[in-house]
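Page 42, continued from yesterday. The earlier attempt failed because a stray header line got pasted into the input along with the sequence. Redoing it now with the clean sequence only.
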Amino acid sequence: MQAGEVIAETPRGQHIPVALFPTIGINRPGTERWPVLMKELDELATWVRTQAVPRLITGIELPAPPLPARYEISVGREDERSALPSGLATSAAQFDSDRLGAAAVRPEMVETIVQMGNSPSAAQISAWLESLSDQDLAQMRELRVTATYEPEIVLSNFAVLGQMRDDARGFSGLPVDGA
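This time it went through. Structure tokens are written below.
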């Protein structure tokens, strides 16, 4: 985008919610490539954590397990090495990707699940989705897009959506199908 470009138009007097999640690219010198900055930084951080630091410290091939991307530092410990196995391998870039994905998918999932038979109300589904962390919405990664009718993908998606509907029913205090 360039300064002054129109990013959205709405009829005069109407309020339409708009969310912007800009993607920032970085130009690699001497190329026309503009990779996404967050992905480039994630790859660099992963390489430093899994390759460079372990080799610099040990002087040998990669030790196992790899260093975690994060672990709780606000808790005092006698031995910080004991905290490393409890750390998470999920990077900040993945958490950010999960956050953006969840923000985009929550409203759509309400509309999709409410249309299924035996579904709770839209308000109940929305409350259930809001109660989940961004990482808890990992079920949605199991949904696959199909441009043509591919029975195995459609059936798989239907099963995932059915499980989500049942989870929303359980959250709402409604009996779950088959229970």
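Notes: The mean pLDDT is 84.
Reminder to self: strip header lines before submitting.
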